[in-house]
Amino acid sequence: MSVVERVRQAVGGVTDPELRQPIGDLDMVRDISVDGDHAHVGIALTIVGCPAADRIENDVRRAAASVEGIAEVTIDLGVMTPAERKALTEKLRDGRPLRQMPFGPDSLTRVILVSSGKGGVGKSTVTANLAVALAEQGLAVGLVDADVHGFSIPGLLGIPTGTQPTRIDDLMLPPVAHGVKTISIGMFLRDGEAAVAWRGPMLHRTVQQFLTDVFFGDLDVLLIDMPPGTGDIAISIGQLLPHAEVLVVTTPQTAASDVAIRSGLVARQTGQRVIGVVENMAAFTLPDGTVIDLFGAGGGQEVATALSQPNDDVPLLASIPLSPALRMGGDSGMPVVLSEPTNAAAKVIRSLANTVAHRGRGLSGRSLPLSL
Prior knowledge:
By secondary structure, the chain is α/β, with parallel strands linked by helices. Helices cover 35% and strands 21% of the residues. It has helices at residues 3-12, 53-65, 82-93, 123-136, 153-156, 200-212, 232-240, 254-269, 299-307, 324-332, 336-339, 344-359; strands spanning 29-35, 38-45, 72-79, 110-115, 141-145, 166-168, 171-173, 176-177, 180-184, 221-225, 245-250, 273-282, 284-285, 291-292, 316-321. An 8-stranded mixed sheet has the order 8-9-5-10-4-11-12-15, with helices on both faces. A 3-stranded mixed sheet has the order 1-2-3, with helices on one face. Strands 6-7 form a two-stranded antiparallel sheet.
C-alpha cells in the first residue's frame, strides 16, 4: 500500500463528531498527495461554518501524522456542493423519504416515554440521568424533550444556552451531551424568549418534526421526556408512536401517585405498554442511620399495582432516594450518575438503566424495586 493510500485510510477513519460516522464513509475526504514527508489532505465540510470544523481538522491532522513517514500535514478545508449535500442527506436517510418518521413499529430502536401525572416529581431529572446512564453502558441513546412548555433537558445536561442543531439542508443534527443526542424546543427560541405559548396544532407539528426532521442516526434507545398530564402532546405521541414503552414517574405521596396512574392508563389506551414505575424523592438515610420519608411512602408501589393487569404485570423498577447531589447535578448540568456515581440516587438510577436495558421490548415479569 502506497503512502498516499495509507494516509487516505487513516484520515477516512476519522469520525465526524455530529454525524458519528467516519468521514471516509461520508465522502468528505478529497484529494490527498504526499511530497516527501509532507502530506496535503483535502476535506469537504458539510456546511459553511460547520461547528465541528476545528475538531475535524485537528483529528484529521493527527490521523495523517500517525502514518509512518509523514512529518508534516497541511489541511485544505472546503465545503460540499449542494449536489454533494443532497447525496449525503439521501445516504443518511438510507432511502427513507423526507419527513418520514424512522421510529415505527419495525424500527430496531426502542422508544421509551418517561411520563408523570403531575409536574414537580423530578421526571425530567430522572430522564436525563437515565439517558446518560444508558449511554454509559455503551448504548446509542437519543433524547427528545417533548415537554415543550416546561423544557428543562438542555439545562439538566449542561447544553449551553443558544446551542442549536446543525442543519444540513432538510436534516437537523442534534447536539450531543454526555453521549446523548438531544433535541429540545429550548434550542429554537430567539433571544429574549423564555416561554412557549402554543396550543394543539403547533405542539403536534413540533413533536412530529422532532421525530422526522432530526437525524439521530442508528439508536438503541430513544427516550422521550413527556410533559406532565394527558394533554395534546400525550395524545399526539400516542398517535405517532402507539408501540412505545412507558415509564411512569411518581413521588411516594398519594397526591402524586393518584395522578400518575391516570397517565399510565391514557398511554395504555393508545396501545402503548407501561413497562414499569419509578418512584422519585423516596426515603433517604442520614449519616446516623435515621430514615427520613419526607414525601411519605408506598406511592410507587400503589401506581405499579394499579397499572398491573392479569397478563401484564407492571413492576416498581426503582425507588430513588431524595438527594441533594441529584438536585445539584441538575442545576450544574452534570448528571449525578457522572458527577457522583457512588451517591445513593446515582446508584439506583444506574441500576435502573441496567434493568431497562436488559428487560427489552415486549418482556414482562416483576423485577424487585431498586433502592438503597
